[in-house]
Structure formats: structure tokens, C-alpha cells
Amino acid sequence: MWRIFNPFARGAAPMSPGIPTQDRKHALLDDSATEPLAKRGKTREAGEGSPTGGQVSPTNTGEGSRSRLRFSAPKPIIPLSQQRGSQAEYSGEPAYVERDAEVRDELWRVIDQVEEFAKGYFAFDIPLETADERFQVLCSTMSNNLKLIVGCIGAGGPGGAGGWKELFVDKELRQALVCGIIGNVLVEQVFASLLFGATMEQREKVHRVQAEYKSTDGFLRTKEYYKAIKQFLPENDLPAAFESHAIEVTMRLYTLLVPILALNPAYKHLPLNINAGSAITSPEKEAAEVLTALWDIVTRAAVLSISMRLDPDTVYYFEPTGKDDWYDPQAMECFNMKTMEASHPRKRTWAHSEDQAEKERAQGDGPLVRIICMDGCTAYRQGGWLSPDSPGWKSMGFRSRRLTQALVACRWGRKRKWVKGQPADRKEVHGTKWVEPGFVEFRNVVEKIQKETLDKIMRKAEVETEEEPRDGGFLSSLGKTFGYMI
């Protein structure tokens, strides 16, 4: 049993947020030989041919000591080709039909956990009178990594800097943004990994396969990856560095999300000095809960990633979703569907004070992707349909099946307009949603706030150096400016 010690997770066993699972709408299995339409909701229970998430168990280190939490990592799915008595053998369907259902169900479980995490820890309210200040502080201390991810998965819309602020201040959009940050990291650093948890030597061998077969098609490369990985995992065990790799990704996610968590007026920062014999503080307990929840998400996704790599016949591809594109109900699921339905410009009840011209303009608005929470996954296989009437089916092109839809948050509006690569948006097209200067990039908003904050600190420091410091000088100015973060 893999055991991992988390230095932040000390004290009583953390509680899960306990948010009920929501159904997935329009989750199509395009060419399924069974039901073509499936909703996320009832999936196989843990242990029925699917991996289980990481488990948490408190252990006592001795009398008078503080109890610690250790994390036990799960084991990967055994490929269907190695299972006995699978349902596919008796249903008359190809084995990959059941395999697709297992991968789809496990992806849904990952998305469920991400949504539960976001709703459990980021559903707080921010008072309107402090929203501007908290957003300023957040941007002033924002890391380049967080700035890059938010700019990639989100769209501020025509509302200028205020549109970006809304993503952090609005409770529902903030939860979608957190889902997007986690989903982006999972796709890029877990599912895109050729072998999650591989040692440096194993990683080099797998990447040599990639370099050797770079000019061949993806199906052949997938088979060669499988052959190389099976040398490292002959009994379908976890890779040797699984534990350290999972800890690394978990801590990266925690580092990205803490600044957003600090927007909560009730948030308490971890003490700078933690003594082993001291009582467990409330901030420590909350950090332990957050880390445990993130650990469960990462380990479940990592085990699924390994299992997908152990399928030599399938190329799994997370199709990129474009922000500010039109919402496609066949390929996407809307995170804020209820809000979108309530604000439908052609179905909603307009207030009498609303301008008639704005009502008419809004009739042309459509649903646009505002936040990409997680890309959808498609399975590709070589050959056509298995049929006695088509003996050459194994070499007849390829076929695909959409396993999961992309999860997105939407807004009503109009798409950006470009002419010869330059923005050409007009205020009258976007109506009352337009706030000068209109569409702006998130990095420009953050960099402007950071520059203004630094200039303010330097000016105040110059004034204090000319006078007798009364309140701590420059360090005091820095502390007051970033008071929410330190």
C-alpha cells in the first residue's frame, strides 16, 4: 500500500464538502453499439472494474504527539483484455464498448470531484464594498502561472477590467474558474503525461519512443508507448515515482488556488511558525482539508491516465475548446445552465426601465464560452466497423467516439470581431455590456494593477525616508498594501 505523508494535513480526518453529484447532459457516445446518449449520474460503483480515488486514514504517531494523515494511493484499472468474465464477452459487443464506458465513467467521477471541491470551498460571498480592493490585492500578488492559466481558460468579455473582476467576485463564475484551473492542470500535467509517476530513466525511454516514431501515425506510437510502459509495469502496479509526482501536482494546484481562496473574508492564513507540540489551528485544519481534496482528485486522474496509456489500441485525445466560441450543446455542457436559462434575452422578463433599443439589440445575442472548465475527451481507433461484410475493416481509416463533453461556463453576448488580425469591435454591437476599453487581455489588467501598486509603494517609501519612520517604514507600507495575502 502506498503511503504518503502530507505536512499540512495534521489533525482530525478532513471532511468532504458533500455536494451531490449533478447529471451530465448530452454526454454522447457517438458510435456506441449500445445507448447513444448517456447522462452523468449513475456510474459503476468503486471496485467494479474502475479505479478508486485516494483514501485518507488518520494514524497516531504515539502518545502526546499530534496525529497525522497519511494518504493511500489507488491501483490502476486492469485492461479489459486481461480481465476474465467481462460483460463484453457475453453481450456480443466488442470489448472496447465496455472499456469506453469505464473510462467515461471515471472521467465523470474526476469532473464530479472537481465540481464538489469548487462548490465546497469557493462558494463564499464577497461584500461589494470590498470587492474592488480584494481584486486589486489579488492581482498585485498574482503569480505568472496563475495569470497565464486564467488568461488561457477565461474571457473577460466586453466589460473591460470589470469583466475579469467578475470572474473572481461572482460566486458561480469563481467556482467555474476554479474548475477550469484544476481541469487545465489535470489535462496538461496528468492526462498528457506519457507515464505519470515515471522515474527520470523511464521517462527518457518513453520519450525516445516518441522521438523515434514522431513521423508515424498516432496509432502506431500508442502501441509502442504501451510496449515500453509494460516493461516498467509488468503487473499493472503504480510507477515508482507515482507518490512524489502526485504530491508535486497537488502542491502546484494548492499554490495556484490559495490566492483565490484568500478572497474569502473568513479566510485565515497559515501561521508562519508551526511547532510539532502546538495545538492544531483552524487554518491548519482547513489547509489539510483542501490538500486532501486536491490529493484525491489528482490521484484518481493519475491512475486513470496510466490506465489509458495501458490501452494499445486507443488514442485518447482531449479536444481543445475555444473560449468566446459559440456554445455547442452536442460537444459541451454548461456549468451555469440555470443562470443562462434565467437570463435568456429572448425568454426573460425585461424590466420596464430597460431601454427599448437595448432589448432589440439583445435579441441577437447568443451563448458564448466564457470559462473552459475542462476539455472533452474523444477516443480514436484504427479501422472501420467490425462486420462480416467488410473483411478489410482493420485498415479502413479510423473511427472516433466522444466519451465526455467539454465543461464550460457561458455568457450571453456577441463574439469579438477581428479584421486582418486586429480587433474591430464596436460599442453599439455589445450595448450596455460594453465598458471602455472593451475587450482586454487578463495579463494586461494584472500587469497594469501591479505597476500601479508598485509605484504607490515606492512613492510612499520615498516620503517615509524623508521623514522619521513612525509605523515601520517601507515594510509597513508593503504589509498594509498586501494585508490580505500575508
Instruction: List low-pLDDT spans.
Output: 1-37, 42-90, 482-486
**Largest sheet: spatial strand order:** 1-5-4
Give the distance, in angstroms, between the N- and C-terminal Cα atoms. Answer: 38 Å
Radius of gyration: 25 Å
* Structure classification: alpha+beta
Strand content: 5-15%
Q: What shape does the CA trace take?
A: globular
Q: How many E-type strands?
A: 13
Number of helices: 15
Largest sheet: 3 strands, antiparallel
Q: What is the succession of H and E elements? A: EEEEEHHHHHHHHHHEEHHEEEEEEHHH
Query: What is the mean predicted local confidence, pLDDT?
Result: 79
Helix content: 40-55%
Biased composition (Polar residues): 53-64
Region (Disordered): 11-69
Topology:
Layout: E1 3-10, E2 27-28, E3 37-38, E4 55-59, E5 68-72, H1 87-91, H2 95-121, H3 128-140, H4 144-153, H5 161-169, H6 171-191, H7 200-212, H8 218-232, H9 242-261, H10 282-309, E6 315-319, E7 332-334, H11 337-342, H12 356-362, E8 366-374, E9 376-382, E10 398-402, E11 406-413, E12 418-419, E13 422-423, H13 427-430, H14 442-466, H15 473-481
Parallel strand pairs: 7-11
Antiparallel strand pairs: 1-5, 2-3, 4-5, 6-9, 8-11, 9-10, 12-13
Region (Disordered): 11-69
Biased composition (Polar residues): 53-64
